[in-house]
């Protein structure tokens, strides 16, 4: 005897359709959350890898990105890689650790917030000028908050606001006016 598909298929009801739709919505939400978390992690790791170029910028940010940080502001993707490179060039190496990711995803937009611990190892020239030894560093505890959007290439940051909550140690020898003001206000 040959069995046809209807004989094998469970009865399909409107309740089954609702359950399937609810399950798909949950899978989509978890997939989006994983993709946004991956964007945040790739960004933080990229700061420590220090390979800033246009591909780096396009892979993480929208063309109209707006970043506010303790060292200043930058708008637009043009020149972003150079700006970021100049910011971190004041240190021999860094380590950025993110945690407590909170996100509110609504369709193709999401607000994000996370805590970060940022360790900045001073340049040899800074250590020499201050008379300190290898490993002398400046540690910052802060928060990142912003907006990410879904693009044809995946999720990208549209806005990012980096805030200092506390610091330990001395900052770099040369500070931007914005960084000086931030450190004075803590």
Figure out the total of helices: 6
Biggest sheet overview = 6 strands, mixed
Q: What is the topology, as strand order, of the major beta sheet?
A: 2-1-6-5-4-3
Alpha-beta classification: alpha+beta
- Unreliable segments of 5+ consecutive residues: none
Instruction: Please state roughly what percent of the residues sit in beta strands, choosing from under 5%, 5-15%, 15-25%, 25-35%, 35-45% or over 45%.
Output: 35-45%
Any idea what the radius of gyration is?
23 Å
Shape: elongated
Number of E-state strands: 6
Helix content: 25-40%
Q: Mean pLDDT across all residues, rounded?
A: 91
SSE order: HHHEEHEEHEEH
Query: How far is the N terminus from the C terminus?
Result: 81 Å
What does this molecule look like?
By secondary structure, the chain is α+β, with helices and mostly antiparallel strands. 39% of the residues lie in helices and 39% in strands. The protein has six helices and six strands, in the order αααββαββαββα. Strands 2-1-6-5-4-3 form a six-stranded mixed sheet. The longest helix has 36 residues. The chain is elongated.
In short:
The protein is of the alpha+beta class.
Give descriptors for this structure.
186 residues, alpha+beta, six-stranded mixed beta sheet, 6 strands, elongated
